[in-house]
Request: fold
Amino acid sequence: MDAVSVIRTKRDGGELSAAQIDWVIDAYTRGEVADYQMAALNMAILLNGMERHEIARWTAAMIASGERMDFSSLSRPTADKHSTGGVGDKITLPLAPLVAACGAAVPQLSGRGLGHTGGTLDKLESIPGWRALLSNEEMLSVLDGVGAVICAAGDGLAPADKKLYALRDVTGTVESIPLIASSIMSKKIAEGTGSLVLDVKAGSGAFMKTVEDARELARTMVGLGTDHGVKTVALLTDMSTPLGLTAGNALEVRESVEVLAGGGPADVVELTLALAREMLDAAGLTDADPAKALADGSAMDAWRRMISAQGGDPDAPLPTSREQHVVTAAASGVVARLDAYDVGVAAWRLGAGRARKEDPVQAAAGVELHAKPGDRVTEGQPLLTLHTDTPERFEYALKALENACDIAAQGAEFNRTPVVLERIA
Ligand code: URA
Reply:
């Protein structure tokens, strides 16, 4: 077998055989296939697509590139969720302890932000002392003791995806349904969860800009999970505007704690509860009542134990930005659009995200929203507060926000986009 013949097959619109897929993933993981060859193959896949059976084999080969975790020693059923990424998407933070408080074990292997989307680990690292890197033994011990753990995936889990994802990121080959589906599902299946709820985002702030593309991605991932014995369902959810009222690391932790304390923005609470119900159903815990666990403080208790178990101080003050800049409403009326992508780019430019994998992030940087689509505003009232420790970033961040907001005349018709658009099982 050689890389050039595999690339040619896909370049010419053919189907890759099982043997070709197994060979190319294994050889790439071992360094025998070069990055430039894999980049050419990824581009051919992005342009020509893959059949379902090719995606299934590609995913299986990525799982086989590393170790598989085993949670069979746990007394609770496992439930996991994965979001395809968005702006202000802090849902994992309240959700994992909430579902743990309802009786499931939640092994949440999470990632870091890249580009305009935030990462769960970057958010939690704004809590003084909190550690994302745990050994497999530590992870199991937190999961067993608390019921929820949020940590980085170890190097042994789907190593083919680690290399491939980094390569795709710099070769314009992220936005491919077969490649995204196999990337996400190889990690989730290797992680060993019994059930999985996918939050597939659609809209300007998501990888999938249209509901049609998001639906196809969701169907592909649900099919892959089911084929590997993982009970998988997907919710298609809106990412045309940021989730909640914050985008940025410490800002989102603060908002998540508000949700755990029984408050927080309505859309964050709604999505957290919708995903919690799906996770509990998938785990067979159909009698659990997540709304009660939020209201009676048991989800907050699980959060505090989870943060402490990973070295964090749940009572420590969160970092605040050295500089703020307020953006005001340009007119009076109703906010008709507040664009997720533009807000995500602004937060990123303020220092909440990184341009390269090794860049540091600012814990306190980000964007605070004072109004959401559908809210009335008066000319001159604060619309957004930008936070950063490095004020020279304001100008560049403001550029991203130039066309972020439309304000319609008072009385104009406004239809609020639902948070959950569709369910796919
Ligand atoms: N998240 C992943 O883990 N992989 C992708 O390809 C896209 C989003």
